[in-house]
Amino acid sequence: MDRVEVEYKGKKYVRHGHDWYSSIGEKTPELQSILNEKLLAHENEKLWVARLNDQTLVFDKRIPPSGEIVTFWYLEKDQFINLERDHARSNSISIQDQAQKTKILEKYRGSSVVRHRLKLQTMGKEYSGVRYSANKVRRETNCWSCKSPITSENLPECVTCGWILCSCGACGCGRSDQLWQD
């Protein structure tokens, strides 16, 4: 888990799991909602929301561009698309309406596809995409990472390992005990 740190009223606080602690290790439940709001505002600074023709796009600064190609999350299809930087810059219109922007960013954060890509990135692994299985056999299991129950019904799977994506973003690529790993 990444260390999450927020400053509030001149003091630093650290999040461990869902709880916040002062710099000297004291649990601070009374500041939980305030610190979560500050963290969300900080994370929103890394995101840009725009319309390009009939597409709603989110640009995340944590996903590095590849030369002149920039990666966006395409809301209507819950997938990533690559666009030329100049084309995206000159033809997109930034969404200014705060309520609309908030709804879009909630969907972005709730997307297992987005969480999957960011999780792979933090592990230093290449993102190859996701697919929806044509296999009609329903698979049921538990996520190895967060232990939540998952099924193959309406959930994508990782192109690289073939595992079902969990809502936390985990797939089989992060497992260290895979028999088929090099």
From TrEMBL:
This is Uncharacterized protein. The lineage of its organism: Bacteria, Pseudomonadati, Pseudomonadota, Gammaproteobacteria, Pseudomonadales.
